[in-house]
Amino acid sequence: MGSTTSARWSGWRSRIVHIPGAGDGKPVLLEFRAGFTTSFELTTGRKNSFRQRAHDTLVTIGRTGPSHIVMPADCDTLAVRRVTVGNEGASGFGRWKVRVVDSDALPQLPTKDARGKGTQTFCYLRAKPYFEYAPVVHYDFIDSPGTIIYTPANGGKQLIRFTSAVTQKGTLRLPQHGYVTLSDHGKWRISVT
Question: CA-CA distance, 139 to 193, in Å (whole number)?
Fold first, then answer.
């Protein structure tokens, strides 16, 4: 558990990081650490010789512990932007760090009820009992609306669900192996059937 490659970046300011090996058709797993009392918004992009095409915001992270996220298969850059509050121009004084990790650094999707808070990614790479088997993730963002992202391990398109005050609970079917990222400033709960 916790094996990593040597690709690491860090900084104090907002920055765009080019992730080597990303954008070649496979998702890339990243571990992000935010500094004390600091929030960061992470956005993915596709870099080419003509322009950089930005994607939607992947997650907003506001905690000091490690948060695991998944870069989509078609993206090769990660924009790290410090979230500012009002006219202050800063949100805390912490440094950020990001590194590439292997899938064994992620916890497996739990078979029973699990709770957590902040941003966490689970890995679903188990043997299927039969070909058509597709587990269903039941999610509940307890404190406030959040985001649940499913990324197929083979590099298919991500499925992103932004919840609201009305739709904080729901289900997500996982048709193939992949990764499930839950992101919220408050607490969340998941179970798998």
Answer: 11
Task: Tell me what pLDDT residue 164 has.
Answer: 93
Q: Distances from the Cα of 159 to the Cαs of 67, 77, 114, 143, in angstroms?
A: 19, 19, 21, 23
Site of tokens 């924009």: 79
Residue 137 has pLDDT above 90, yes or no: yes
DSSP type of residue 132: T
Full DSSP string of 81-105: EEPP-TTSS-S-S--EEEEEE-GGG
Comparing CA positions, the residue from 189, 87, 107 lying closest to residue 143 is 189
Three-state secondary-structure class, residue 131: coil
What's the whole-model pTM score?
A: 0.85
Long-range contacts of range 44-51, CB-CB < 8 Å, 24 or more positions apart?
44/71, 44/72, 44/75, 44/77, 44/78, 44/79, 45/16, 45/75, 45/76, 45/77, 45/78, 45/79, 46/74, 46/75, 46/76, 46/77, 47/18, 47/23, 47/76, 47/77
In terms of Cβ atoms closer than 10 Å to its own Cβ (0-12, 13-18, 19+), residue 58 is: buried
Give yes or no for a contact between 91 and 82, defined as CB atoms under 8 angstroms apart. Answer: yes
Mean pLDDT of the chain: 85
